[in-house]
Design brief:
eleven-stranded mixed sheet; ligase activity; 31% helix; globular; Mur_ligase_cen; alpha/beta; 486 residues
Amino acid sequence: MRYLSDIIEGLAFTELQGSADVEITAVVFDSRKVVPGSLFIAVRGTVVDGHDYIEQAVEHGAAAIICEELPAHVTGEVDFLMVADSAIALGIVAANFYEKPSSNLKLVGVTGTNGKTTIATLLYQLFRDLGYKCGLLSTVENQINGTIIPSTHTTPDPVALNSLLADMVDQGCDYCFMEVSSHAVAQHRIQGLTFAGGIFTNLTHDHLDYHKTFLAYRDAKKAFFDGLPKNAFALTNADDKNGSVMLQNTKAHKKSYALKSMADYKAKILESAFDGLLLNIDNEEVWFRMVGTFNAYNLLAVYATAMLLDQDKAKVLTSLSKLPGAEGRFDYIVAPNKVIGIVDYAHTPDAVQNVLSTIHGIRKGDEKVITVIGCGGDRDKTKRPVMAKVACEWSDNVILTSDNPRSEDPAQIIEDMKAGVDPAFKRHVLSITDRREAIKTACTLAKPGDVILLAGKGHEKYQEINGVRNHFDDMEELVALFKEMN
């Protein structure tokens, strides 16, 4: 039994109308989910304002309302709490309602533009292999001790987030590793959580449709580190110029990792091939199953985190050397005629360049690189020409196609991308709206030894067109086509 007085602990409110002794059965911010006894938080979203649904929440049986301003007319017996920011209040009361689950395990957050999913997934796999019970909150999927829970957002809303963390605590988890998106920080989804540590990967062009400026995007990431407690660790990539920015105001223990700069944890690439990496990591030579410089950074970040969590060095390196990484991140297959296919989630200019530069660093001769790439609809339009430009600079042939067009015209998205194509490269660029046909064309163009990169969708098993998610899997398409290549 939970009372309002219990779940508003630590919440700054300006006014209380009614009694704080009312029993609360659920915490919700969607009026359609209100059941009798609910606490409804009226949050101002980017599309709708929860204040417009207060009356509906009361009609459905809400026992109490948290809001920033009182409605003009409300009938029925209900308590009101006035706060300055309902989104912040939601995080605090959600954590309290589920009895602050993040305080009952070690929660480690990973933020940055690229590498979040890989690092969080590797940490989850590593610590389970080391014998711990763990939880994972990621873009690909959420997991609790091997049980998969579908993921809809990089970072869930505060209610779903605390509910998942509570389930992890109930199942005896020692650790949880989670991605922390810039949206989640800006929208206060991680408010009320207690982190044992934070990891910064890198910062490049992304999500400017939401944050508007790169500075605002960077500051959203930085706010995560600003909020870490003094007994936590803050681990940053010293080779990224924004790494030091993340540490400026944090109270946490400051640590760094790097391949090039001076840092607390260092690694060096000794060999790089399509089937793995040989790294000197903390003065130990280890072969890893993952590929590319970007994964060297990811592996080093995971190793450093394990050391900061007091794990045994030899056991950590042995376990890491066996792990495959996250689905849809540089997944590669080879056709019978030796054409190499790579599926990668790269959907930012920097990520595309990382993957393509890795391919160039590994290929031995004059093999062609054919890149199939699109950009998502209803997302940051400014990166579209940049994505195409990068793909052209690092590929022999480029096929511009659809990613998830969502509500936009796929042909117009491709036109936006073509603005970044240098006139001298235009004869090497094809535009094929249908992604399946684009992949098929890439396979037709490829000769033995050539490399086909399918960029953008990675692990996704759907393509979203006009609000409908149709089954589509890049790797599935590639496997079927490769069977026909002799």
